[in-house]
Amino acid sequence: MTSAATRQTHSTFEDLEVYQVAREFRKMMYRIAAQLPETEKFGLASQVRRAAVSLTNNIAEGHG
Fold first, then answer.
1. Backbone torsion region of residue 36, taken as left when φ is above 0, otherwise alpha when ψ lies between -120 and 50, otherwise beta
2. What are the residue ranges spanned by the domains of the chain?
């Protein structure tokens, strides 16, 4: 399938399977970050959440 055909099939980035999987991954990462020790609230937990959000943001940006 060509790039143009893919875009016609997937009209929005939310329709992409990779985006849907990334959203589920993001939810899991938020749950894991919430279980980290309180001392990591502004360190590792914050970085995990930002990285998970970045994943879905980059898919959306790359879609167009």
1. beta
2. 3-63
Global confidence as pTM:
0.76
Q: Would you state the torsion angle of the CA atoms of residues 27, 31, 36, 37, taken in this order, to the nearest 10 degrees?
A: 130
For residue 7, pLDDT over 60 is answered with: no
pLDDT given for residue 41 in this prediction: 87
DSSP string, the chain: --HHHHHHH--SGGGSHHHHHHHHHHHHHHHHHHHS-GGGTTTHHHHHHHHHHHHHHHHHHHH-
